[in-house]
Design brief:
alpha/beta, Ribosomal Protein L4, Chain: A
Length: about 210
């Protein structure tokens, strides 16, 4: 697939690039995408919920009433879970919700999403650019020139560009990531994917191996 390279004014530079068929033109695998997004969401969970159980409640272990003859249910100490202030039965404990997913499956998921985006015309190649200093207004101007100011946009750069990252940070609908840090969730969540020219080689290196 061949795409024109645009400049930050939204016009053509007169150049074009060839996107790799191994990355941008495969048969999408929906189940791989599902697993990759599920793993991403699972890893975002903190897993720090904790409730005190019977053995962790402070209080006396004395039996509060005799076993029989009271006309009510038998009960042990005041920390009994059926009493107010007692321990919780099978309460949540700190845990890691993440799970292992094979590298090849995650690669397949990203290639699948990129192939769908390419088919839908949702991928744009932009010449490399940066700013002298972080400026949200200038980054918003680039989005406006590309007619993407009202859409969720994912900018993919070849290397870490701290200035671009800081410039886009305050815009809720845009995100800047390095090519090597691409994930299925960000790709799927974006309406448009803007690839810097320098990112294409890195994407082929990271995702090109089937």
């Amino acid at each position: 697939m061949k795409l024109d390279v645009l400049n930050i004014e939204g016009g053509s530079t007169g150049r074009s690039v060839e996107l790799s068929d191994a990355v941008f033109a495969i048969e999408p695998n929906e189940h791989a995408v599902y697993l990759a997004v599920k793993q991403y969401n699972a890893q975002q969970r903190q897993g720090t919920s904790k409730a005190k159980e019977r053995g962790e409640i402070q209080g006396s272990r004395r039996k509060i009433k005799k076993q029989k003859g009271t006309g009510t249910a038998r009960a042990g100490d005041i920390k009994n879970p059926i009493f107010r202030g007692g321990g919780r039965i099978f309460g949540p404990r700190p845990r890691n919700f993440g799970f292992k997913l094979n590298k090849k499956v995650k690669q397949l998921a990203r290639r699948s999403i990129l192939s769908v985006k390419a088919t839908e015309g949702a991928i744009v190649v932009l010449e490399d650019f940066t700013f002298d200093k972080p400026k949200t207004k200038e980054f918003a101007g680039v989005l406006q020139n590309l007619k993407m100011d009202d859409q969720k946009v994912l900018f993919v750069t070849g290397d870490l560009d701290q200035i671009l990252h800081l410039s886009s940070r305050n815009l809720k609908k845009s995100k800047v990531v390095e090519a090597r840090n691409l994930n299925a969730y960000d790709l799927l969540n974006a309406n448009k994917v803007v690839l810097a020219e320098s990112s294409l080689g890195e994407i082929d290196k990271v995702l090109g191996d089937a």
